[in-house]
Amino acid sequence: MSGQTASSPQEIIQILNRYFSKTTSSSALNGKSQALEASRTFSIRRDSLFVFLYDPMDVFTKGPFYDTTVIPIQQIQQIKIQKSRNNAGQLGIGIEFIQKSFTGIPSKEKSKDNGAPAVISDKNLANVNAASVNQKLIGQVAGVTVGNDNSPGGATMVRIRGYGSINSNSPLYVVDDVPVTGNLNSINPNDIESVQVLKDPSLTAIYGVRGANGVVLIKTKKGGVSSGITTDLPRDLELSYTLWTWGKAAGDFNKSEDKIKLKKFLERDFN
To answer: Is 91 exposed, middle or buried (0-12, 13-18, 19+ CB in 10 A)?
Structure first.
């Protein structure tokens, strides 16, 4: 039945294992270890796809290499099927994960709703005599804890939903609609126009698993020379990822209905 959708995450895992579980070791790039084969395993937990890679001989470390890629399914806007060839001339098929663009937050009908975002203006931020963005949140939003994470250098710790959440306890930071990682101290507090703190699950749902600990939306002023996202603050574009398979597995996947099932499942709206 052409176009049939996968009935469960288990079927998706079976499809991925069938076509994408084997790949060439990165050490084959130097032309000396072409017989070595790396392997992938897959898992779907909550709303995220986990890709676990094992390479027996990494080209850089000269030893075993382990890596985990986490792809929040809620943040997938589109799946594209790409074609290419590897160094050996084998045909390859790639699944390209294209992430959603975050252009704001869902509106609340009632401004007094407990789930409404807490908005902090530049004037309120200026009233706090602090050198970093996180420190300027002290006392600004009920339920938000700001302290020191006791790490070398004394980085500022922000907790929106307390401790015990999945993965890290830190919130997701989104600067000018772009999720970012790294040290927010690289942003000049004087360049910030407003900060919104999202605590309610109905507002953080569009950010998938990374919004589980709350979201801090930072809007910068556009006029200043140093405004916007600095080059020191990396964009957190973890969905800029393509999963490749080569040779016979690529040909079989390209001709199968599994390609349609996988694409439809991953493009579903899980919110």
So the answer is: middle
pLDDT at site 103: 52
Domains of the chain: residue spans and CATH = 9-101+237-266 (no CATH), 118-220 (2.170.130.10)
What pTM, to 2 d.p., does this model score? Answer: 0.52
Q: Residues 6 or more apart from 157 whose CB is under 8 A from it?
A: 134, 145, 146, 147, 148, 149, 170
State residue 102 phi and psi, 5-degree precision. -90, 105
- Which of these, 214, 210, 168, lies nearest to 74 by C-alpha position? 210
What CA–CA distances, in Å, run from 112 to 105, 109, 116, 125, 140? 16, 9, 7, 22, 17
pLDDT digits (tens, 9 = 90+) for 120-163: 887 887 777 777 777 777 777 776 777 655 555 555 667 775 54
